[in-house]
Specification:
single chain, about 375 residues, lipopolysaccharide transport protein A fold
């Protein structure tokens, strides 16, 4: 138990050291990038530093697997140079048993990353986008594109498709907007055109609206109604609209299950969010696989010039697994793989491969 605590403490200190080095490097790089982006604006030094501090958590979160494998390599190379692993083996402890403590630390760090760092990254990313857009002057109404902005809302009583030519930053004020309501059977029931639509609590407030009843035998234009203002019930919230514009990473993991349920109820495809949710749940396992990959090539007594070769093999294999993971996520988002398989298969396969290499090195 004392030996396990010693290895756990060594690995944790090594991880924090590598983490600090990457944090300092990335904050200087990001500061340079922020100065390049906003150097010609009226941004102050404090605003630029604030933008960098808001952007750093997301950057660090993305490279956690790289930090983990470098910390593993640094730990076991240090133990090999000091002959501590030789002493550990001589005391009757196998190298695989010595790996238990770092694996537990990696699992705990992965849990903290998902449970604590993930919501922090989601919050700081939103704030970064808002502040960066304000400095660039993007806070006014902008055009979404030639096809406009498309939204959908609905419940058990039917669905409503919303198309707008322009919208403000968070999508709560729409211009040149059209509402088409469908029955539960999928038939169009009503169409409403309006100059503007503003989202309030539980409804869209339309101005200069014209509505048609569809599906009757009469000509819809004959029964068209012009109204200065009109309220259309809505199940959407500003957070839902904003999150639907961005990536799933902008939503804290604690809120993802409820958000996915709301998307599915409203008729949206939640595949991308579902894949991201399982990917975040699988992050501790992926970090554990990085530790096992690093250990499988460096958990030995290093001799001659093979150390650099083994380190290179470990990093190359880690990048291959990382590429396969990203490729599986793309397949999952496209619906070609189930979300659970796309998220969990790469880390579990990497753990199995690493365990095979470790057992071969230990038992021959």
């Amino acid at each position: 138990m004392i030996l396990h605590r010693y290895f756990a403490r060594r690995f944790l200190m090594t991880f924090l050291g590598v983490f600090t080095v990457f944090f300092l490097i990335m904050i200087f790089i990001d500061l340079t990038e922020q100065f390049r982006r906003h150097g010609r604006s009226d941004a102050t030094m404090v605003e630029i530093v604030t933008l960098s501090l808001l952007n750093i958590p997301q950057a660090i979160y993305q490279i956690l697997p790289l930090i983990m494998i470098l910390a593993t390599i640094a730990l076991f190379l240090s133990l090999a140079r000091s002959s501590e692993m030789v002493v550990t083996r001589a005391a009757g402890r196998s190298a695989i048993r010595a790996l238990v403590a770092p694996l537990i630390v990696a699992l705990c760090l992965g849990g903290l990353a998902v449970g604590v760092l993930n919501p922090i990254v989601a919050s700081t990313s939103k704030e970064y986008e808002l502040r960066s857009g304000a400095l660039r002057g993007d806070s006014s109404v902008v055009s979404i594109g030639s096809s406009g902005l498309w939204l959908r809302q609905g419940n058990a009583e039917g669905q409503t498709v919303i198309r707008a030519q322009r919208a403000n930053l968070d999508g709560t004020i729409l211009s040149d907007v059209t509402f088409i309501t469908f029955s539960p059977q999928g038939r169009p029931v009503q169409r409403v055109d309006a100059d503007t639509a503003r989202l309030t609590s539980g409804a869209w407030q339309l101005t200069a609206a014209k509505s048609w009843l569809l599906g009757d035998d009469d000509v819809p234009e004959a029964n068209a109604v012009l109204q200065n203002t009109l309220d259309v019930p809505s199940t959407l919230t500003p957070d839902q609209i904003r999150d639907s514009f961005g990536t799933p990473s902008s939503i804290p993991i604690w809120e993802l299950p409820a958000f996915i349920a709301r998307l599915q109820t409203a008729g949206f495809s939640a595949q991308r969010h579902l894949v991201w949710f399982h990917t975040e749940l699988a992050l501790p396992a992926f970090l554990v696989s990085m530790v096992m990959i690093g250990a499988s090539f460096t958990l030995r007594h290093q001799r001659g010039g093979r150390t650099g070769l083994m380190v290179m093999f470990a990093i190359l294999l880690a990048f291959v697994i990382y590429f396969i993971r990203n490729f599986a996520l793309v397949l999952g988002e496209n619906g070609q793989l189930p979300a659970i398989l796309a998220a969990w298969a790469p880390p579990l396969a990497a753990m199995s491969l690493s365990m095979g290499i470790l057992l071969h090195n230990e038992d021959g």
